[in-house]
Amino acid sequence: MNKEMKRQLILSGVLLCLLISTLLLWYRNFIFHTYINVADYQYCFRGENESLLIDGYEFYENKYGAENGKARIVPLSDMFFQKGDQVDLTFVLTTSQATYEFKQTKKIQSDNEVLYLDEQDTQERLSDQDFAHAQMNVKVMRDNGTVYDESLEMKKQSLVVYNGGNKDYTIQEVYASSSWLKTGLFSSTKKGIDQDYPTMTIDYLYLKDGGQEDNINDYERFAYIKGKTKDILNGSLQEVAYYDEQGSLLDKNLCCVITLIQENEQDVYTFMIDLHGTIKAVETHE
Amino acid sequence: MNEQKRKKDFITVYMLRNAFATLIATFFAFLLSLIHFYQCTFAEVLQRLFVYDIYTTLYFVLLWVFDYLIFEVSKIIYDIYEEKVTFLPCLFLIGISIGIFFIPILDLFQYNFCFLCLLIILRMMKEMWKRTPELFRWIHKKRPETGLK
């Protein structure tokens, strides 16, 4: 072996050691960011006119099935909804292949009520389809007459998926648009966590304008999920929340505060996870 | 002087070729692994690899550099034992490239290692054909004339 070869071999060896240690060090991070069990599809629509604001009409599919609905309908003028009104809502979705209609009927329980639509099963296969047009037909009936019958154009929102985690716990698949957020999936590397801590809470917070990142008092809680740890680990508990403040939710720093609670509330374990976003879908129908 | 420049140019071409070959090997390993995991199309793999997440892209680059270095080290080791190399190391590498699939690690590393071993074997065979043609006597009754100094 001549000197030149020896020199090359030593240099390569040193570089290899450095590379292997970097690869090992980054392995968890890489797995976490690359191999994510994403929902089969997730879309969110929003539309408004001078009388109504419809936000968070979602279509999604995950291991539990395909669903649509769950939107919030806010009347923008006083006494738009009155007690006893019947509201017929039809979401009309036109794709390049067909037109689908999703109907719901709601009864207004009190004046100026903010309506929340139910979640219903989606029978149609919507993944890999391009949405040409979407609209919501709203019909309000009062005393056997129609007082409002209009269509709102629904725009598909750009969704950002947030992930976050520390050594033992991760929060994945938190979907958010500029005004809407769907809570994510919680997972842990620790076995038997649902027995040690039967109940838990996950609070979603955003950093207020001009707030300090390190100061927990500068964060505002706007969504939370509380329930049995087992259900949350299964992913069967997911909530949606709406962001009604100025600006876009996507410009805010988001984080989660996770509280694991022992039986009889003997011991409470709380920690924080920062959420980081990645743009998943950028196309909008504008 | 001219001879030296030509040699330098050749080394650059060889390095580029090796870099390209290892890049393809790493890319195919990622491609197979991601298609297997997400059951998605080639276009989506490209997006997942280069658009969605910077960590994935960085890890891809890291793994590529790792592959390239391993390949270069294999070249140096071959040069050291040039005269003594027989088919045994090739068989050993084939054994590794098959055996790796029985080790419970991420399939990405299994594919990557397998492709890398195949590349090293290919290069080794090429060099053996050139430098120690007597090993291929069972193919050629006569010694091939090309590649002999």
3D architecture notes:
The complex is a heterodimer of chains A (286) and B (149). With 286 residues, chain A is mainly beta. Chain A folds into two domains: 41-156, Immunoglobulin-like (Sandwich); 159-281, Sandwich (Immunoglobulin-like), CATH 2.60.40. Chain A has three helices and 21 strands. In chain A, a hairpin with a 2-residue loop joins strand 2 (52-62) and strand 3. The radius of gyration of chain A is 24 Å and the shape is elongated. In chain A, 27% of the residues are buried. The model of chain A is unreliable at 281-286 (pLDDT under 50). Chain B has helices spanning 2-38, 42-52, 54-80, 88-99, 107-131. Chain B is globular. Chain B is built from five helices and no strands. In chain B, helix 1 packs across helix 3. Chain B is mostly helical and 149 residues long. The two termini of chain B are 22 Å apart. Chain B has one domain (2-136).
Describe how the helices and strands are arranged.
The complex is a heterodimer of chains A (286) and B (149).
Chain A: H1 3-34, E1 41-48, E2 52-62, E3 65-69, E4 72-75, E5 86-95, E6 99-107, E7 115-116, E8 119-121, E9 131-142, E10 145-153, E11 155-156, E12 159-165, E13 169-176, E14 180-182, E15 185-188, H2 193-196, E16 199-207, E17 219-228, H3 229-234, E18 240-242, E19 254-261, E20 268-274, E21 276-281
Antiparallel strand pairs in A: 1-2, 1-11, 2-3, 2-4, 3-8, 4-7, 5-6, 5-9, 9-10, 12-13, 12-21, 13-14, 13-15, 14-18, 16-17, 16-19, 19-20
Chain B: H1 2-38, H2 42-52, H3 54-80, H4 88-99, H5 107-131
Helix pairs in contact in B: 1-2, 1-3, 1-5, 2-3, 3-5, 4-5
Essential attributes:
heterodimer, A: mainly beta, Immunoglobulin-like, seven-stranded antiparallel sheet, six-stranded antiparallel sheet, 3 helices, 15% helix, 49% strand, elongated, disordered C terminus, B: 149 residues
Give a quick precis of the structure.
Chain A is mainly beta. Helix content of chain A is 15%, strand content 49%. The radius of gyration of chain A is 24 Å and the shape is elongated.
